[in-house]
Amino acid sequence: MPPAIQNPRFLLSQCRLPFHFTPAPLQLPPNPSLRRQLHRSAASALSSDPQTISRDPKSPYPSLPSPPSSQILSIRESLLSRQRTAADIADEYLDRLRRTEPQIRSFLHVSETVMREAEEVDRLVESGAALGPLAGVLIGVKDNICTADMPSTGGSKILEGYRPAFDATAVRMLKEAGAIVIGKTNMDEFGMGSTTEGSGFQVTANPWDISRVPGGSSGGSAAAVSAKQCVVSLGSDTGGSVRQPASFCGVVGLKPTYGRVSRYGLMAYASSLDVIGCFGSSVIDTAIILNAVSGHDRFDATSSTHEVPEYASCLISIDDLDSKPLKGLRVGMIRETIGDGVDMGVVSSIKDSALHLEELGAIVTEVSLPSFSLGLPAYYILASSEASSNLSRYDGVRYGNQATADELNYLYGDSRAEGFGPEVKMRILMGTYALSAGYYDAYYKRAQQVRTLVRKSFKDALDKNDILISPAAPSPAYKIGEKVNDPLAMYAGDIMTVNVNLAGVPALVAPCGFVEGGIAGLPVGLQMIASAFNEDKLLRVGHIFEQTLQNFKFVPPLLTE
Amino acid sequence: MMALICHRGTFANSLFLSKSALFTRSSSSLIHTLQALRTRVSPRAESTTSTLKEELIQPTTKRAVEQNIHGYEAIIGIETHVQLSTLTKAFCSCPYLYGSQPNTTICPICMGHPGTLPVLNSKVVDFAVKLGLALNCKMSMTSKFDRKQYFYPDLPKGYQISQFDIPIATNGFIDLDLPVEFGGGHRRFGITRVHMEEDAGKLLHSETGSYSQVDLNRAGVPLLEIVSEPDMRSGLEAAEYAAEIQRLVRYIGISNGNMQEGSLRCDVNVSVRPIGQLKFGTKVEIKNMNSFSAMNRAIDYEISRQVLLHSQGQSEQIVQETRLWEDGAQKTFTMRKKEGLADYRYFPEPDLPEVVLTKDYVDKIRRSLPELPEAKRRRYEELGLTMQDVLFLANDNHVAEFFDTTIENGADAKLAANWIMSDIAAFLKNERLSINEVKLTPFELSELIASIKNGTISGKIGKEILIELLSKGGTVKSLIEEKDLIQIVDPTVIEALVDKVLAANPKQLQQYRGGKTKLQGFFAGQVMKESKGKANPLVLNKILIEKLKGDN
Ligand SMILES: [Zn+2]
Known about the structure:
The structure holds two protein chains of two kinds.
Chain A: H1 8-13, H2 32-46, H3 50-53, H4 71-80, H5 86-104, E1 107-110, H6 114-127, E2 138-142, H7 169-176, E3 180-185, H8 219-226, E4 232-237, H9 243-249, E5 252-255, E6 275-280, H10 283-293, E7 330-334, H11 344-359, E8 363-367, H12 375-390, H13 408-419, H14 422-435, H15 441-464, E9 467-471, H16 487-492, H17 498-503, E10 507-515, E11 522-529, H18 535-548, H19 557-560
Parallel strand pairs in A: 2-3, 2-4, 7-8, 7-9
Antiparallel strand pairs in A: 1-3, 4-6, 5-6, 5-10, 9-11, 10-11
Chain B: H1 19-22, H2 32-41, H3 62-68, E1 72-83, H4 122-134, E2 138-139, E3 142-143, E4 146-149, E5 159-162, E6 169-177, E7 186-198, E8 202-205, E9 212-215, E10 222-228, H5 235-251, E11 264-274, E12 284-287, H6 292-311, E13 321-326, E14 331-337, E15 347-348, E16 355-356, H7 359-368, H8 373-382, H9 387-395, H10 397-408, H11 413-431, H12 442-453, H13 459-472, H14 476-482, H15 491-504, H16 506-513, H17 520-530, H18 537-548
Helix pairs in contact in B: 5-6, 8-9, 10-11, 10-12, 12-13, 15-17, 15-18, 17-18
The structure holds zinc ion.
The site of zinc ion has 8 residues of chain B, from loops.
């Protein structure tokens, strides 16, 4: 059961300081503008007076761009104050979804019951009954996460029309918290890809520039949040599939610690690396979603029994901190991620972010992860090996598309040949090869040894630093079609993220700047990495970073046209 | 047509496969198991290139084997699959009940639906540790699961969750005594390993053979695979090994060990080599034996077949293959030739954490183990029972338990054994019951034995009471009272009876006194009849003789 956030005010009282550095004594911040910004976000979330929180959503150009605020908390406020109905809010999102979907194409399926579910929320509001913490929040769910009442294909033709018999644990928890699943988002087939061009059904466009990809494999979920087709969304991250599209689409993306969120109901790609993550337009929103879906699940033996802190509760009252809210925070910038082969604009955005963190009081140093470059090949061997096994069940015998065949071998062969796309076939072949007798030691076993090295190097670096930072991708969003015929270049694009999965640690990507491209520039995300189960630390740093980042507003031109 | 029953809203495909077409590409490793199924359905001896005359191989009696294999030695190793009697399957919460309607004990997890994950039933580990300890194995304090990968319609995930390089138990042994009627003897056979794994479903072939259907009830049922060292030398030893495994799993309560239901399945590897040769001969695997006697016969047949080939200088005709035992033909037939080793691409199962045992846990299970068959047999021997008795009593854990409780109540071991092995065993056989299904309790058996021993009732009455106790229950005491069965030992009562009989038969008495002393038996019978069988025969005869002599 997710902890109930019945009343946003409750969040304040729960606040505590997760850092192990000593917070500065309470004092008046010398920088009034910083103070005002911080205060505003806190106040807007907490005020019982609806007037103070009702910033006009239709005026995206305030004199100075305001930092992103929690959409979830503002929906909650609107409902509790009876300013807006859930049906109203659902209607607004559905309307925007319909308008933008022809260009973005982020959804494989849009729920037909959204309005009905929203009206149900309104009836609850009317009755004065307690509302779940996510009541009326419209959430997009990546198509490889099972939903009982909607098709779940994993982006693959082999599961076209397949409807699971059950909700994934994460989906069940979201529903129990009151969320409304708005639809299933597009993805690279079974998570194998970095552009969402690998979907068996359609190509999703980046809301910042529709000639570009949204990243992948959770491209649909990232684009949908960026284009405000939904409030928040679930993705999955095996080698960067949440973080890289978050960076490409200018939204916040969180990859939790392996085991933090149950994988039950997530179609397995690489079981030892897969984790369900989430997207939001603010750090608070990802924190609230993480809170809702975290925890041990008796249906997933690899889910952790580690305690689930109140992730969202510490993010509100940062106005209680001084002008150096990150004072003493040790930040390691990973040297290997800002060198050759990384887009200059991306590098300078990350370096600017480092400066910004320093201004907030952090101590930024460069750290080296010697095994960093080994991570990419090791990742592709391990992920492909596990995938070759995990995808064996798609044989056309029990569910999914079955080829017409009168001989067993053809039934298997044809069902899989027709059902799987080329990238999936390639990875099954690679993985089958790596696990074959005579090759196992040279590939799979070797890759496991590299994984151990990577884990150790992260541990060493995170013993000396509170967080590590790096780009989330070596470049901004690619052009659609740019990497289709160059799989190695596409794989190389995962260099920033795969090591984190090998190490199993959490990482948060928050928009940090822009590089040239498109009409309004292309967003760049900052990846922040912490030790296992230190999501609270990441979210707190990310929140402060986001709330104090000035002169940037991450609303795609599509929405302001 | 039987549709595959799936969970709510799940898309279900029935599996229609043309069986005749299935084998058109039989060289592919993917379908090797399917050939097995076909052979099982319609056994057909493969046209072997061998010139071996099958008729030369005699039906296998012990003597025939000994004659045939003169100068050769058979090497036999056995892989045994034990289906565990846990309430739920290994990795989901479905029950398993043998004989259920197809596809009624299934769920998304054991059907391998997308997104589902296995969660280990801790009972499986309990049972594995029990068996590992009972087989005197070294326990792996940390073991892990691996995936064994192959495609077959009865394997929903495309891989079987098993244990590969680190099984939960290794390096043990099992002790047994061969039956007295086969010459007896004690044997110790090595156990290579015990590992945990899941069972697959079953294919059901249509009568016309034009399609097959999948029943996943059995998919995910926990198994323990026991691999023996190649220590057996004859069909008898192999069958006795399997019987001892069955006894053991029943004793420790982890399986019903039923071979007909497939709860205990043995695959046997047989090779033959000239005595004195160090190198093993080519190994042949035999499957499809669903009784111990079938195992015995199948192995002896196979040994004879291989020895014959050796002795005819055709040992190259012995190839690595799997052969099926056909009970009807009393022969083994080629099922499939092995074309190199199958590559199952084992790798560690990422969905399951390592299985970590603590010393405390293992010790606790060790302490909870009952007395095992070998220990029981040695104890019974010390009680002075014959080996025949020992083997009979220890064979069935319920019988052994009954016997043990009976003697704990003070009954004489030899008498208790006799009662159990004769009258009780005969009753059980007649009524097709097992000893724990009858109304007789061990306590009452001990009472019965005591009552006879102290002269309260006669042995004859004891046998009558026993039948009553077995079928209707009750206590020895109440039956004796109720039916007034107490033996008459009072001489005055018996004297009165004798007087009565003598008075009623004056003619016979006269004949007796006239020298026809044979009539004593007649009078004794009459008195006994008059006493309703309760007169103590010793007292009766003593008084009768006195009276007949006519002292008064
Ligand atoms: Zn099940």
